[in-house]
Structures are given as structure tokens and as C-alpha cells.
Amino acid sequence: xxxxxxxxxxxxxxxxxxxxxxxxxxxxxxxxxxxxxxxxxxxxxxxxxxxxxxxxxxxxxxxxxxxxxxxxxxxxxxxxxxxxxxxxxxxxxxxxxxxxxxxxxxxxxxxxxxxxxxxxxxxxxxxxxxxxxxxxxxxxxxxxxxxxxxxxxxxxxxxxxxxxxxxxxxxxxxxxxxxxxxxxxxxxxxxxxxxxxxxxxxxxxxxxxxxxxxxxxxxxxxxxxxxxxxxxxxxxxxxxxxxxxxxxxxxxxxxxxxxxxxxxxxxxxxxxxxxxxxxxxxxxxxxxxxxxxxxxxxxxxxxxxxxxxxxxxxxxxxxxxxxxxxxxxxxxxxxxxxxxxxxxxxxxxxxxxxxxxxxxxxxxxxxxxxxxxxxxxxxxxxxxxxxxxxxxxxxxxxxxxxxxxxxxxxxxxxxxxxxxxxxxxxxxxxxxxxxxxxxxxxxxxxxxxxxxxxxxxxxxxxxxxxxxxxxxxxxxxxxxxxxxxxxxxxxxxxxxxxxxxxxxxxxxxxxxxxxxxxxxxxxxxxxxxxxxxxxxxxxxxxxxxxxxxxxxxxxxxxxxxxxxxxxxxxxxxxxxxxxxxxxxxxxxxxxxxx
Length: 594
Ligand SMILES: Nc1ncnc2c1ncn2[C@@H]1O[C@H](COP(=O)(O)OP(=O)(O)OP(=O)(O)O)[C@@H](O)[C@H]1O
Known about the structure:
2 domains, 4-stranded antiparallel sheet, 21 helices, 64% helix
């Protein structure tokens, strides 16, 4: 057995394990598929019996059951045909509704599970992957699976049922013909396996290609402003064309294999059919087979063999679905390293005292970014981190929010290690205004109330006021009901910044972190931020990552970061007196540099 076949089969087993909760429904749907198929092949048998009645009349098979009059025999067969059709239709309705709903429910459960898991994944996971590819898994791959469950699973079950049911009839009527009629079947099954082995890597490639295409499409749509400003439309269109072409080629290869499979199967089927047709005919002429039995066999060979042509399509669907299923389950089963430790308590009331003790950190296997960070921020204080770009200021904050885990040392909040309290309680107690503000498609009011769904309009307004955002909001024609566009495109950088401060303030967190944007802040906003900072930092611990030193001259303590270490710390005046890095930065920013 090849590894390719194993991985497809392994994917199916993983899927079955995942779908444990659906097992009863799967069994029920499978039973309906089997019942439908059994009733579906019966009319052929009844036709054969009817021929037997008209040819042999009082000596017919039905006569042997005790009904002498051929007219009554036919009436009985007519009645039975009606019943068979009713049941066939009933089970068809049942299996359709069961499989289709199952497909819907399973794809829904998988999409929601996969999404929920994606939200829990470590940030490191996202650094190595593209958003577009993830979206493709959540959408396109999930749909692929739905397509298979919608029809493919039923097809596979029905083909197997046909082979078994028709086989049983054949062997009971004439084992000799049965052997001949069944010769193509091993060939077809071997062919299906061969096809599946060849197709599996091709479909894996198709999924990969669709993922990269999705990645580029989503990146390009998000970066449309950059594309336009660099006038690189042609260049980007060419890159999309290439990715789309790679997808097309991958599909073309898969199509070439699967299309070749169908004619091969048909030839094998034809051989089986002609053999039954001829051998059965001769046996009937010889008198070793009844006319009715011959009829049943010829009709049934059709019923037996033709559905196998669908097998190629179904195996195709199956391979595509398994390639997708593997991607979804890989995502769902990606381990999460930053999560609640066993017995983690919720961080209830927080004063806001923060300590870093001997903290070291590196991103993955990269060079260390933070070295031996030791600091204590008293509850209610306002502190600032300053330093060259890349010196590790934002990284420090990411550790405090547990976006990453320190390589060594510990971080405490109110004396409790941050990894000993529950993640969401920690993050709920810390307000974070990040450098790149992310606003959601929706109104200004919804964006300020994001994360505080119960906030009243008054509270939203008060938060906007503290962030000095009311002035521009009131000037907008729809005020708080203005839709800001995806990522807040319809607002200026400074306006987005103020909204994100309002959003953090509405949470009323005991610890507030402002990662000040380097750009996007005009002088107005700078002054506004400074005023709001003074207002809002009273009752909480406030940490500011500052690029403009003028915003933090009043801070209780300023830490100057240099290459991942705290090089200097103290109040503004103390640091100036030290005449070190801070003093030099200050001189540059105030234009007093020599
Ligand atoms: N996710 C990441 N993976 C790998 N390296 C990273 C990652 N994020 C940041 N770095 C690296 O870590 C170092 C510190 O980055 P950090 O963002 O903490 O600096 P910063 O002082 O906040 O800079 P800035 O003032 O420009 O915001 C930089 O050298 C940066 O390249």
C-alpha cells in the first residue's frame, strides 16, 4: 500500500474521529442509502419474474409460491412494483435530506471549530502564514468537504450495496454467469486504487495552489492603496495571473488522470456486459436458463456495472475532500502553547502593580530581543518606554499581554505570575492601544463599544470625550452612526488613533497601555493624547511607548531601552541630568542637538 493511499485513508479516519458526535446520523443516513438501493434494483427482478410469468404461466416461479392463475400472478407483481417504488422514493427522500443536512451541519461545525481554534492560536503561527491561505481553509476547503458529503458518500455506499445485492441475486440464479459478470469488478477496484494513488498528490497540490492564490488575492485587496501609489497594477495582475495559472495547471493534471479513468472503466464494464449477454443467451437457448432469469441477469448487469462509472467521479470527489479535510484538521489540531495553565484563576480585582523579573526573550530561534529586564511599576503610576526603533519596547508589552512567552524570568501583576491567571481575565484587565489601530467594519459607536457590548450610549460618549474624539465625531453627518469602512478607511490616522483610545478607555481597565504610533499622529492629536493621558492616567497604571518625548515628560518613570536592555531609567529631569541616551534623544527632538 502506498503512502498516498494511506494518507487519504488516514484523513478519512481523522475525519471520522472528528465527526464522532455525528455518528448516529451517519449510520442512519447510510441505512437509508442502502435501503434505497435495495428497493431500486428490485423492479428489474420483478420484470424478470413478470417475463417468467408470461412465458411459463402456470409453471412460473410465482406459481410455485401458490398462485396458479397467471393474471393474479401479474396483479401481485404489479402491486409489489407499486410498493417497491413507494419505498424506493421514501428512502431516496430520507437519504437525501439526511446526507445533505449532515453535510451542512458538519461543515458548519468544522468551520466554527476551525475559526475558534484559529483565534486561540499563538501569534507565532500567524507570522509564518498568510491570512488568505487561512481564509481559504476556513471557506473553500470546508465547502469541498460539504460537496463530498452531499453526494459522494451516498454514492460510495450505494455502489457497494449494488455490488453486494446484485451479486447475491446473480450467484443464486447462475453462479457461472455471476463469475463472468463480476470479472470487471476487481479490475475496476484496482483501477480506482491506482487512480486514487495517482490523484492524491495532485489534489494536495490543487489545494496548496488555491491557498496561495487566496493568499495573494487577499493581500492585494488589502494593499490596494500601495499598489495604486506605486502604479504596480500590471505587475500585480501578472503575479495573480501566474498564481491562477499554477492553480489551473494543477487542476488540469488532476483532470487528465480522472478523465482517463472513466473510459477505462467503461471498457471493462462493456466486456462484462457483453459476456453476460452472450453466455446467458446461449444458456437460455440451450434450455439451461429460464427466459425470465436471463432477463433479470441482463437487466441487472446494467444495474451492477454502469453505476461503477460514477466511481471515478466519486473517488475524485473523495480525493478532493480528503485533501481539504487534512488541511482543516491540521489547522484544528495545531497545538496552542499560550493557554490557560491548569487551575488558572481569574484575575479579579487588580490594583495594577507590574513587575518584570530577569526577563529574557527571543522570537523563535532569532537572536535575543530582550535581555535581563528588571523593573517594577507601582499601581497607579504612569511610566514610559522610549528608545531607538527595534530596541524592544513593543516586545515588552507583547510579553505583558502574553502574546508571547518569556524565555526566562517572570512577569507579575499584583504579585501573581501572569501565566498563573486565566488569559482572558488578564487581557480584560489590560487596555491596549496598539500602534496599528484596527477598526472593524461598522459604526463609530460599535467600534468604541467593541469589547464592551453592554456599554450605554452615555458611556460611549464619555469615553470618546476622554479621548478627545467628540469634536470630529460630532462633525460627521451621521455622528456616532457613521460607518467607518473596513479597517476604518474612511477616517484619518489621528481619528482612528483617538477612537482606539476611546475603545480602550470604555473598558475602564486598571492597566492601560498606549503604544504610540510613529506616524499618524499630527500635532493636534499629540496634544490631545497628552491631555487625555493626564486625565485618564489618574486611577490606573499607564504604560506609554513614546516616540515623541514631549508626551511623557510628566511620567513617574521613563525607561530608556537600548538593544533589548534597559539602559537608563528615571524621571525626565533626572534623565536629562544623566546626559546619556535620553538626553541625546531629547536634544534631537527639541532641535537642540549640536
Ligand atoms: N514577530 C516577530 N518575529 C521576529 N522578530 C520580531 C518580531 N517582532 C519584532 N521583532 C524584532 O524584535 C526587535 C524588537 O522589536 P520591537 O517591535 O519590540 O521594537 P520597538 O522598540 O517597539 O520598535 P518601534 O519603536 O519601531 O516600534 C526588532 O529587531 C524586530 O525586528
